[in-house]
Design brief:
With 366 residues, the protein is an alpha/beta fold. It has two domains: 2-16 and 247-365, Alpha-Beta Complex (Aspartate Aminotransferase, domain 1); 21-246, Type I PLP-dependent aspartate aminotransferase-like (Major domain) (Aspartate Aminotransferase, domain 2, 3-Layer(aba) Sandwich), CATH 3.40.640. 38% of the residues lie in helices and 14% in strands. It has helices at residues 21-34, 42-55, 66-76, 91-99, 121-124, 144-154, 205-215, 235-244, 248-266, 294-306, 331-339, 353-365, and strands at 59-63, 82-85, 103-106, 129-135, 157-161, 169-170, 173-174, 181-185, 198-202, 219-220, 223-224, 272-273, 280-281, 288-290, 340-342. Helix 3 (66-76) crosses helix 7 (205-215). It is globular and about 65 Å long. The two termini are 12 Å apart. 45% of the residues are buried. Bound molecules: pyridoxal-5'-phosphate (PLP). The site of pyridoxal-5'-phosphate has 14 residues, from helix 3 and helix 4.
């Protein structure tokens, strides 16, 4: 079946958006003019304020990356103890909990949305539980209302790993408006990026003040207040962010078109795609498909690789199966991790790719 396909250049699962060189250069010129390369410089301040306004949130701090963003959000909120979290996320969600000396307690996912199942959270709460850390998986909003109600009832903090949720809105507001904190990743593979980078969104002035100290060695001038670290974003990274930002809407528009092309060619095939969620503006950050069994996923992935199309198991493994955690099995998450494949998805993807992939899938399971 795949012999009929035309040979082609390798197609990877994503391709970083690079702004026109002249636009990045114009921001770098500002860095050269100010001669300030880091430590809360003018471009950093501009990006921070621009993003804060864009999401209409009270406090936003840029970070070195999305992993330290989660770690320092946990610390800024003073969370110490057990954290209820999702097993279906990138490893950084769990590793951040562990690096902060907290204990991840996994609660399984809703297989439809791939986000933590709020109906299972209360049974996992014990007197040692301090927080819920949930991921808006692939930019699909968690059931924020249910999580909010549970957290209020039990006095828990809520942190959302919103690494995938840039520009996602729910009921007309940024999804980042929910919880005590949300964290973003601006890694080069993300919809909006600063090469490496991230941010923490907070809603409380005191926590934001703590976060600023934590990000910058725990001191202001000669006055040392707390154990801090270096999690600052440089001017050069912030400059990339300022150059990428004006292009985000167009990237989302093109991604939406690509999403529609994939759905069209896959609609007759026995694969599950992400739901369109009510009251949500999606950002079309990823295009995962879920097969009926891990063996089918494996065959599709291998056959695609044979013709130079590289998909990715995202997320794998289910985090309850990491070698350095102890957890009861998380059935729904383990099935998702076994059967999910993220397909190549980025503006500029050669137009034949969705149909080619559909043809491969049809050859195996159609
Ligand atoms: C859900 C999720 N959380 C956290 C991270 C970590 O972000 P970063 O790579 O910026 O450290 C990523 C991506 O890399 C992610 O996908």
């Amino acid at each position: 079946m795949s012999q009929e396909l035309q040979p082609m250049d390798p197609i990877y699962v994503t391709r970083t958006f690079l702004p026109p060189r002249a636009e990045y250069d114009a921001w770098l010129d500002k860095v050269y003019t100010s001669h300030v390369l880091t430590n809360n410089g003018p471009v950093h301040r501009e990006l921070e304020e621009t993003l804060r306004k864009r999401f209409d949130v009270p406090y936003l701090k840029l970070m070195t990356n999305g992993t330290l963003a989660i770690q320092l959000a946990i610390r800024a909120l003073g969370v110490k103890g057990k954290i209820i979290t999702t097993p279906f996320s990138y490893v950084a969600t769990t590793s951040a909990i562990l690096w902060e000396g907290c204990e991840p307690v996994f609660v399984d996912i809703d297989p439809q949305t791939c986000c933590i199942d709020p109906n299972l959270i209360e049974a996992a709460i014990t007197p040692d539980t301090r927080a819920i850390l949930a991921t808006h998986v692939y930019g699909i909003p968690c059931d924020v209302e249910a999580i909010d109600a549970i957290a209020k009832k039990h006095g828990l903090k809520v942190i959302y790993d919103a690494a995938h949720a840039f520009d996602v809105t729910y009921k007309g507001k940024s999804i980042l408006a929910w919880g005590d904190a949300s964290t973003l990743s601006f890694h080069a593979t993300k919809l909006f990026h600063t090469v490496e980078g991230g941010a923490v969104i907070l809603h409380d002035e005191e926590a934001d003040h703590r976060l600023r100290l934590l990000r910058s060695f725990g001191h202001i001038g000669d006055e040392h207040y707390c154990l801090g670290m270096n999690a600052k974003m440089s001017e050069v990274h912030a400059a990339m962010g300022m150059a990428v930002l004006p292009h985000v809407e167009e990237c989302i528009r093109q991604r939406k078109e690509l999403d529609a092309s994939y759905r069209l060619v896959l609609k007759e095939l026995p694969v599950r795609m992400l739901p369109n969620c009510p009251d949500t503006t999606h950002n079309y950050a990823y295009f995962p498909v879920f097969f009926s069994a891990g063996e089918v996923r494996r065959r599709v992935q291998e056959e695609l690789e044979g013709i130079g199309i590289f998909s990715r198991r995202y997320f794998y493994p289910s985090l309850d199966q990491l070698p350095y955690v102890t957890s009861p099995p998380m059935a729904a998450s383990e099935v998702a991790a076994d059967t999910a494949l993220s397909l190549p998805f980025y503006p500029g993807l050669p137009t034949h790719v969705p149909a080619t992939i559909a043809q491969v899938i049809r050859g195996i399971i159609g």
